[in-house]
Design goal:
This protein has 146 residues and is mainly α. It has helices at residues 2-10, 15-45, 51-59, 62-93, 99-145.
Length: 146
């Protein structure tokens, strides 16, 4: 009974997962662009701001990039699992048995994994870049203060 209910949820397919990943990609890109603008603003006004203000301004929204970078591959993998369940469910209900009956569903499922990586990789790269840049800016401020 429980398995049937979960199967009913699982055979919705990969599309909802792909929409979530697409939304994450757009948000990630927006955060990256916004962070780049803030870094430019801080660079111009670094002498007017306290160290705490600089740190708060620069670290804002980096958690979004870290969260997306860490979780997007798992969401993509979840989509892959749903797609494979859906492919095998379709195969079990049909009279056709063979590799062609499953290949479309599996290839669709693998798109979810690729999309998850497509979201995660730029997010992780941007997060690491911004964290490194924050450390350098704060180190320079500290050196100038002493």
């Amino acid at each position: 009974m429980l398995v049937e209910k979960l199967l009913g949820v699982a055979i919705i397919g990969v599309d909802p997962v792909l929409w979530v990943l697409l939304s994450m990609s757009v948000l990630s890109f927006g955060v990256i662009m916004e962070r780049a603008l803030v870094f430019g603003y801080v660079k111009k006004r670094v002498h007017e701001l306290s160290m705490i203000e600089v740190r708060i301004l620069l670290e804002k929204r980096l958690g979004v990039l870290a969260t997306f970078g860490n979780n997007a591959p798992f969401i993509g993998l979840f989509g892959t699992v749903l797609g494979i369940i859906n492919a095998f469910h379709t195969l079990s209900r049909g009279s056709e048995f063979g590799i062609n009956a499953v290949m479309g569903g599996i290839s669709e499922a693998l798109v979810a994994t690729a999309t998850g990586l497509f979201v995660a990789i730029p997010s992780v790269i941007a997060y690491n870049y911004f964290v490194r840049k924050i450390k350098m800016i704060l180190l320079n401020m500290e050196a100038k203060a002493s």
